[in-house]
Write a structure and sequence with these properties.
This protein has no helices and 11 strands. The chain is mainly β.
Length: about 120
């Protein structure tokens, strides 16, 4: 099993910044892709950004140019730097991880979520 613990959420003014962190622990051998998803009330969970163990990144169109995902493999940690935040970025942000077994991916692992609220 893989445990994911997020931190760094909170209340921020429009135009402000937040940095989310997610630490992975447990059975992290073969841990490969990590990423961030978000879910606002009444909406489906959506992918925000992802990063492979080699550093390849992918972003949702809505956050491209404003958010940056990074990871520290030595610390088993993934980060999401969020700049120029907008009210529509308000959501519960979830950390996600998957293992690569050479020929298939593992099921998704999820953190408990951290609330981000952008409001004046």
């Amino acid at each position: 099993q893989v445990q994911l613990v997020e931190s760094g959420g909170g209340l921020v003014l429009p135009g402000g910044s937040l940095r989310l962190s997610c630490v992975a622990s447990g059975s992290i051998f073969n841990l490969n892709a990590m990423g961030w998803y978000r879910q606002a009330p009444g909406n489906e969970r959506e992918r925000v950004a992802s990063i492979t163990v080699g550093g390849g990144t992918n972003y949702a169109d809505a956050v491209t140019g404003r958010f940056t995902i990074s990871r520290d493999n030595a610390k088993n940690t993934v980060y999401l730097q969020m700049n120029s935040l907008k009210p529509e970025d308000s959501a519960v942000y979830y950390c996600n991880a998957r293992k690569w077994y050479g020929d298939r991916w593992s099921p998704d692992y999820w953190g408990q979520g951290t609330q981000v609220t952008v409001s004046s």
